[in-house]
Each structure stands twice: as structure tokens, then as C-alpha cells.
Amino acid sequence: VPDSADAVLDGLDPEQRAVATALRGPVCVLAGAGTGKTRAITHRIAYGVRAGILQPASVLAVTFTARAAGEMRGRLRLLGAGGVQARTFHSAALRQLQYFWPRAVGGEMPRLLERKVQLVAEAGARCRIRLDRNELRDVTGEIEWCKVTQTVPEEYATAAAKTGRDVPRDPAEVARVYTTYEQLKRDRGVIDFEDVLLLTVGVLQDRPDVAEAVRSQYQHFVVDEYQDVSPLQQRLLDLWLGGRDDLCVVGDASQTIYSFTGATPDFLLGFRGRHPQATVVKLVRDYRSTPQVVGLANGLLAQARGQAAAHRLELVSQREAGPEPSFAEYPDEPAEAEGAARRIRELMDAGVRPSEIAVLYRINAQSEVYEQALADAGVPYQLRGAERFFERPEVREAGLLLRGAARAAADPDQAGSGIPDQVRAVLSSRGWASEPPAGSGAVRDRWESLAALVRLAEDFAAARPDAGLGDFVAELDERANAQHAPTVEGVTLASLHAAKGLEWDAVFLVGLTEGTLPITYAKTDEQVEEERRLLYVGVTRARFHLGLSWALSRSPGGRGSRRPSRFLDGLRPGSTPRGARGAGGGAGAERGSGGRKRRGPVQCRVCGRTLSEAGEIKLMRCEDCPSDLDEALYERLRAWRMEQAKAVGHPAYV
Ligand code: ATP
Ligand code: MG
């Protein structure tokens, strides 16, 4: 713990210091990946608290994921500023709603809806609108979009047309299902994920006494990852502020990757316009990545188009030179996964810890082949966004046992050994061995989560030598409430979306083919640009090693027809930048020399290969690419949305 407020500023560069010492908002930090935005705002809060200018309980810091919130609380504690609320929008709103519900509405707060899709199906049936599986998922997605963008059913058709949305059914039908879904929820006394924010906004708007109570509690607001704030979250923030402007936001327009939830960088980019007196700070020094990684990230952004691209910030690496990013092409996906597993083993043999390595992909369904390859290579791994740590049965059971043991230990006649030993003893009484079981699968997962608890106990005991087992159990409760899971020792497998804000020594970006990145359903220019930003987010997660790879076909013996992602054109060795080849990039109509429209080559709508066989041209896809891919992709998209929802603390999906 730094010994003074000024010592909190040590280790910040002049611009970061400017952020940390600008203790009155409005403050806006515009900066690229790895420039220390999160670090600067964390130190700002700690400095304010340590200098006695900010009361810890009056600060509300909002971050994007529960994990990021947990990390921020941990850092603040280490800087001597414990007790500050760092939460996601959702968890902050849920707490306020629970607290104020009896006063504002009366009675108990309704339960959170668990099976949303089922209720949407029921709503469809009530309206006599038959929805097949895909339509059901898409209509559910549309309802979510309406809610986060505060679009009421009557406005849906106009709003969808205006924003160019891919409407799954006649907009009037979607609107009817939406209305009925809302009705059914009311009838059953349940609320959904989006309602938590909507209701909190509603209560704060309608009940000045509640708004006053919240405003007198929180006076200083800090928001991380502000480029991905949704209009509804912005509304909530405005209500919390209530006309005050002690707000500090940080963000990077080039990392806007959640537009599908209604998020928009407009609030970040328009901040100065809304607050002309704001202190605006730009950070350009990249402390995370080597010049090689930063060079690739800059190269990627140089090709970006659109609104966010106009605000891109060139990064300047502060680190020593490292290895060149590697580009690797494989005949098929299993070979690609084996290649990654082999390189990971080499890194581990060279002393890199598995928890410092990540494999990142576009959609979760890509993880399977990597799980297999890593298990075969004997590499431990963990899936991010997988089942929540504190809800796992073995962790719950361990929690109960530890609680019992803590009660017994409180008896002065019992237990004088250290916390980690006590935890090990409790777990081994239930058959937990200190050595991992052979192989992968459920038994191994169970062992890993209990091992994570032991490591947590070790860290806790090191940080608080005087604490007892009861304190550790309290720490577990606190972490469970905040969904702040301990790090499981292992290579991280995660989607690019879930990797936001995080960093590793070595990052493998895999499956970089047309059809996967950009994903097939990214159709408009804006959607394709968002896919490019996703790759930018992926590249900038790496501190040192960066591997990029793709496979020419899905399975061994496939036709080898996929093309590497267009975003790598001009960046991977031997390729030409896009545009340099003329306008012949895509399928469809082109202008011939006589000004007459002529059909260009037909390309596979899945992998982008130019098709030559008549049968394939008719299908507009290679035989190699599975016919149900669209459906599978939607399935994956849905699963991925669910995962994102979990990542942001969506209680309805737990
Ligand atoms: P992202 O856009 O990915 O969220 P960020 O701008 O929030 O990135 P941080 O995560 O705060 O960046 O910082 C990136 C890394 O650089 C971290 O490991 C952080 O500790 C380190 N770092 C930041 N500022 C400094 C500094 N002044 N000196 C040394 N290291 C720093
Ligand atoms: Mg950050």
C-alpha cells in the first residue's frame, strides 16, 4: 500500500497524472488500447480517497464486466482505497432496485425471468404467429434490442427501417410478439435482464425521493469502456448525476464492439460537445505491447473506415522489441489447433505460465477443437464465460464446508494452522487430492475449481496474515456477490468479445477466415468495420507473443477453399493491401468497360472462395461448406449473446 496520496501517483506518466489529479469532473480520456486508461482511473479514485477529497462510499465506478469490477476493487484495496463501489451498470442498478423496491413500488421485487426464449415462444403462440427456431432467436434478439434502445412496440417498424436492421419477420408481427411478451411478464410477476435497467430508470424518473436518496449517496462517477455505453445506460448515468457533472469517462472508439446491444461511441465522441468545460486528456503511450504488436494494431486501424476510424489514435509502444507476430496457414481446423497447442507447449517449456496465454476466437463454437488439442497436449485450460465459478456445485459445497469449519475454528479450543492448510484439510476430507487427476473432462474441471479455491486462500493469507478462516469465508461471499471468480491456472480460451480490457503475455488469434472474421452475418459496412475492431481488440490483448492463424478447410480432407480474413490483407506476408487490387473484392455486380452491368465472379457465401462449378454456383456455396452453417451460426450467435449476457452479469441466464 503506497504510504501517501502522492505515492499513489508514482508510476503514472504525465498525462495519466493529469487524469488522476483532475478530481472534479467532467473529465474525458480518449485513448487507444493498452495506454493505461483503466490504470489511470483506478489511481484517480485512489488518489482522491487517500488525499481525503473523495469519500470512498460516495464514489461509483462503473466497468464493463463483473470481472473487471472485481479487479478494480482489488486494485483499489491495494492502493489503500477499499470500500469504493466498482460495479457493472447492471449490478449497480440491481442493488438500487432491490433496495428501493419496497418504498417505490411496494412488496417484494419480482423474480428475474430465467427462460426468456420460452416466454417469447409463448407470446408468439398467443399472437398466432408461428416462429421457427431461428425466428424465435432473432425475434428475442429484436426485443432485447428494442429494450436497450428504449424503442416501444409502436416505434419498432420505423426504428428498424431507419437503422437498417435485418428484420426476422414482418415488423408488425415482431411488435405484436413484443407487446404480448411484456404482458405475459407482467401477468407472471417476472422481470427480464433489460428490465433491471429500465425499471431503475423508471423509478429514478418517477420518484424524486428515491432519486434524491441515490444522488446523496453517490457524488462522483467514473465509467470505463465508455465507447460501449448504450443509450439506456447513458440515461441511467444521467439520472444518477441529476444535473451534476462530476463524471470521468474513459474509452477508445476503435474498440466499440457491442453495437449489437445498442451500444454506441456517440456518447464518448460527443462528450466534449455536451460538456464544453470538460478536461480532455489523450494518452498515446502503449505500455502493454511490444512495438511489433503495436505496429500490427496500427496497421489494422490504418485500414479502418467509418466514424470510429476518424477518431483513431496511433499507438506508440513503450516496451522493448519482441518477436514478430506470426502468421500461420493450416490445411484444416484440427491441424490449426494442434499447431497452436504445440506453440503453447513450447512457450510453457520456455517458462511462460499457462495463465499468461490465451486463445481467442470469434464464436464460442470454435473452442471445441482447441479444448481437444490442448487436452491432447497435456495443457491445462479454462473457458472464459463458461459456467459461473461460484455457482459450480463443488464450489458451493466447499463454501458450506468452509463455513462450518470457520464456525468450529472460532472456538478458541480448536484449528491453529494457517488458512490455506485449513482449506486443504476441509477439501481433502471430501476426497480432494493435491495433485491433479490425469486427463481432461468433468473430473479435471472439478479439481481445477477446488485448486483455485486453495490458491485464493494462499493469496488471501499472504495479503492478510492476521486474518482467520472466518475472514476468508467472508471474502468468498463478497467475491460470489460480485461474481469475481479467482483465476484458474490454465490457458484461457475465450471469445474476442469476452477478452475486452484483459491482457496476456501470449495471444493466439485463431480461425481468421472470411466468414468467421468478418462473420457471415456482418453485411453492412458498419458491421464489417465492427468486425475489424474486434480483431483490433484481439491483437491489442498481447503483451509479447502474438500468433494469427487460419485453416483452409474445416475438416481434414476438405477441399481447402477458405480464404484468410480480408483484414489481414497487406499485413500478412505476401499479401496486398485491400484496394490495391482494384474493386474486385466482392461478389455481385460490377461495371464493365461499356458501362453495362455484368455479373462478377460468384463467391461462396460461407467462405468467400470463388466458385467455378455450376452446382456450387447455384447454391452460392462450396459443397465443402455445410448447408446448415447459417443455422449453426445463428445458434452460435445466440449462445454467444447468452455468454456476453453472463459476462456482464445477466442474472436471468445463470
Ligand atoms: P484497454 O483499452 O485494453 O482497456 P487500457 O488503456 O485500459 O487498455 P490498462 O489495462 O490500464 O490499459 O494498462 C495496460 C497495461 O499497461 C497494464 O498492464 C498496466 O499496468 C500497464 N501500464 C499502464 N500505465 C503504465 C505506466 N505508466 N507505467 C507502467 N505500466 C503501465
Ligand atoms: Mg481498460
Automatic annotation (TrEMBL):
Task: Name the SUPFAM superfamilies for this protein.
Answer: HRDC-like, P-loop containing nucleoside triphosphate hydrolases
Binding of ATP: at which residues?
A: 31-38
Keyword Hydrolase belongs to the record: yes
Single GO molecular-function term? helicase activity
Q: Which InterPro entries is this protein grouped with?
A: DExx_box_DNA_helicase_dom_sf, DNA_helicase_UvrD-like_C, DNA_helicase_UvrD/REP, HRDC-like_sf, HRDC_dom, HRDC_dom_sf, P-loop_NTPase, UvrD-like_ATP-bd
UniProt entry keywords in alphabetical sequence: ATP-binding, Helicase, Hydrolase, Isomerase, Nucleotide-binding
Query: What is the name of this protein?
Result: DNA 3'-5' helicase
Region (Disordered): which ranges?
A: 553-600
Q: Give residue spans, biased composition: Gly residues.
A: 581-592
Similarity comment text for this entry? Belongs to the helicase family. UvrD subfamily.
Q: Which CDD domains match?
A: DEXQc_UvrD, SF1_C_UvrD
